[in-house]
Amino acid sequence: MTLTVNIHDAKTHLSRLVERAANGEAFVIAKAGKPMVKVVPLDQPSQVRRLGFMRGQFTVPDDFDRMGEAEIAALFGETE
């Protein structure tokens, strides 16, 4: 869970919070309880890499690109 700090506390403890962020612990600064910004270390990517996140959890059939071919052709009145 990400640490959330209100603006007043962030200003009061900025040095300590920046040190924590530099060590890899991101945090959120909120104003009146509403998250405003996320502070992350510079070497940490801001976007989560999503490509391949489900690798190994399912398989794609070899005929995937031909699945339902006959049904689709029938919908368009085509016959083989």
Give a verbal description of the structure.
The structure is a single chain. The longest helix is centred in the N-terminal third of the chain and has 9 residues, at 14-22. This protein has 3 helices and 3 strands; from the N terminus they run βααββα. By secondary structure, the protein is of the alpha+beta class. It has a 3-stranded mixed β-sheet. It has a domain at 1-42: 3-Layer(aba) Sandwich (YefM-like fold). The N and C termini lie far apart (57 Å).
Summarize it.
With 80 residues, the chain is an alpha+beta fold.
In total, the number of strands is 3
Could you name the CATH topology of the domain at 1-42?
A: YefM-like fold
CA-CA gap between termini: 57 Å
Give the amount of beta strand, in percent.
15-25%
- The value of Rg in angstroms is 25 Å
**Could you give the order of the helices and strands?**
EHHEEH
Structural class: alpha+beta
InterPro entries: Antitoxin_Phd/YefM, phD-YefM_TA_antitoxins, YefM-like_sf
Family: Belongs to the phD/YefM antitoxin family.
Protein name: Antitoxin
Function: Antitoxin component of a type II toxin-antitoxin (TA) system.
